[in-house]
Design a protein that fits this description.
Chain lengths: 113, 112
């Protein structure tokens, strides 16, 4: 079975540019999570969807960050405008239901110059 | 608040057992997890334990849960060089929405 698929794997862009990260959860999973990993702060939950509806976005750092889940098989995380401090690895994870084990994608390594 | 603590580094010799420890604060957590992260890769779910269990064994992995002390451990028997990675402990937060609270990660170094 295919796992969680994220794209792109790497993104390098200049500050001020719009960045869009994409995620395809495991088929049949109803919950989708976006995390950010940095050396300083470790792994942080940004936002979580259940049945395509955002449930908890308290981890989204600023209004520059937005996430959507238009259907059960696709989600995006957008940063506009991007800043160097947004540089991190962004992970998407999915689970069958909210409290069940989460399966992670390979992440997008984002560098903002 | 919710917090998960792990020691940062563990070094063992190949063939020895490794024990990685974790403490957590939220006694209402339903599941506790162990994830493995290799360099440049995502987090791989290794194993998990439900809060009404004390122990779970899966091949070379043994998870022990002490609910009284809020202490979780992962034992890897016959540690191999391929086990070198960062190991994260995580608990489900009290909001029960599925939000995972991660520890800082323990880097396991396996020497030949």
């Amino acid at each position: 079975d295919a796992g969680v698929i994220q794209s792109p794997r790497h993104e390098v862009t200049e500050m001020g540019q719009e960045v869009t990260l994409r995620c395809k959860p495991i088929s049949g999973h109803n919950s989708l999570f976006w995390y950010r990993q940095t050396m300083m702060r470790g792994l942080e939950l940004l936002i979580y969807f259940n049945n395509n509806v955002p449930i908890d976005d308290s981890g989204m750092p600023e209004d520059r960050f937005s996430a959507k889940m238009p259907n059960a098989s696709f989600s995006t995380l957008k940063i506009q405008p991007s800043e160097p401090r947004d540089s991190a690895v962004y992970f998407c994870a999915s689970s069958p239901f909210p409290n069940q084990p989460q399966h992670f994608g390979d992440g997008t390594r984002l560098s903002i110059l | 608040g919710e917090d998960v603590e792990q020691s940062l580094f563990l070094s063992v010799r190949e063939g020895d057992s490794s024990v990685i420890n974790c403490t957590y604060t939220d006694s209402s957590s339903t599941y506790l997890y162990w994830y493995k992260q290799e360099p440049g890769a995502g987090l791989q779910l290794l194993t998990y334990i439900f809060s009404n269990m004390d122990m779970k064994q899966d091949q070379r992995l043994t998870v022990l849960l002490n609910k009284k002390d809020k202490h979780l451990s992962l034992r890897i028997a016959d540690t191999q060089t391929g086990d070198s990675a960062i190991y994260f402990c995580a608990e489900v937060g009290s909001s029960n929405t599925g939000k995972l609270i991660f520890g800082q990660g323990t880097t396991l170094q396996v020497k030949p």
